[in-house]
Design goal:
Layout: E1 7-11, H1 15-29, E2 37-41, H2 45-48, H3 65-72, E3 78-82, E4 94-99, E5 107-111, E6 125-128, H4 131-140, E7 145-148, H5 153-161, E8 167-171, H6 172-177, E9 186-187, E10 202-207, H7 211-218, H8 223-239, E11 247-254, E12 257-265, E13 272-280, H9 283-300, H10 302-311
Parallel strand pairs: 1-2, 1-3, 6-7, 6-8
Antiparallel strand pairs: 3-10, 4-10, 5-8, 5-9, 11-12, 12-13
Helix pairs in contact: 8-9
């Protein structure tokens, strides 16, 4: 049998993105008669616009659209994304061929002095790049000062250690994948800090007409990760909330039952709406669960909270 031509995997050049792309490449290589793989580094808007908070920039898909456009232009064959960055409406002509087994989806607090969240002094400076984290932090500790935090994961930790912040909040998954979990002070409970939709999951896209690439990528799909992220992404799509809206959600699979919990929070932490529900562990049921809970959130007033967030100046001070 003739070995297939090399697969070109498109990825951002950050340490975490490269880890994810190399992980996908390694999984493909384990398959019998797998093709050679070549990584193609692609700069995205999110990489280039480091001077402003992400939520102050109009539009979506800051870290994905350039990679997906390269996919559609046949400059690459496979696109690897942090699934939380991928818009719920995919670029026409592309498909999400695999969702890899999910890493720990929780947020993590990394504090300079080892303090837990409740132990941080009033006015302590907490860095985050996420509007969602900022809102839920205000809900839990309105006396803390939220500061903007950009850069790759190692850079963020270096800025904490240099004294620019008293604590920072990062995704546990990224810390673990880069071997930096030793910096974690504590994991933030998902009931108080629901993670970003699909946090901890890696999504792999191919062109809809590329059967060859799909053959190698589809084998990487993890049933549990696909079900949980399907429910979460369906909720996000139905609420019509982009990454600039403080919404968190987490689905978990318990046997053959899917559980989904989601919250929307006012930016100042003054109001929070929460819903939860269950469904059978099936892709169609997962999507319907997300859609149903989205409607419950909207009925409770989520649209008002989202509209209020979009009307204010989201600029967060940097140290």
């Amino acid at each position: 049998m003739t070995r297939a031509s090399a697969l070109r995997i498109g990825t951002r050049a950050s340490a975490l993105a490269l880890w994810q792309a190399r992980h996908v490449a390694a999984l493909i290589a384990r398959q019998g008669d797998a093709p050679q793989v070549r990584l193609v580094h692609i700069s995205t808007e999110g990489d280039l616009r480091t001077d402003v908070p992400l939520w102050s920039v109009g539009g979506k898909a800051f870290f994905t659209k350039e990679i997906d456009r390269a996919l559609l232009a046949c400059e690459i064959d496979v696109a690897v994304h942090s699934l939380k960055d991928l818009a719920t409406r995919l670029e026409s002509g592309t498909e999400l061929a695999a969702v890899l087994a999910r890493e720990d989806p929780r947020d993590a607090l990394v504090s300079r002095g080892g303090e837990l969240l409740r132990e941080l002094a009033p006015g302590a400076r907490v860095g985050s790049s996420s509007l969602r984290r900022r809102a839920f932090l205000a809900h839990a500790r309105s006396d803390l000062a939220a500061l903007e935090l950009r850069g790759n994961v190692p850079t963020r930790i270096e800025r904490l250690q240099s004294g620019a912040y008293d604590a920072i909040i990062l995704a546990t998954a990224g810390l673990k994948r880069l071997g930096l979990e030793g910096h974690i002070t504590c994991h933030l409970p998902v009931q108080e800090f629901p993670p970003a939709v699909s946090q901890g999951a890696i999504g792999v896209c191919v062109r809809t007409d590329d059967d060859q690439a799909r053959r190698w990528v589809a084998a990487l799909d993890d049933r549990g990760a696909r079900l949980t992220t399907t429910a979460e992404r369906a909720l996000l799509a139905s609420v019509e909330a982009g990454c600039q809206v403080p919404l968190g959600a987490l689905a978990t699979l318990r046997g053959e039952e899917l559980h989904l919990h989601a919250s929307v929070c006012a930016l100042d932490g003054s109001s929070r709406l929460t819903v939860a529900g269950t469904a059978a562990a099936h892709p169609a049921h997962a999507a319907r669960l997300g859609e149903r809970l989205a409607q419950e959130l909207l009925a409770k007033g989520a649209r008002r909270l989202i509209a209020a967030v979009r009307e204010v100046d989201h600029t967060v001070a940097a140290p």
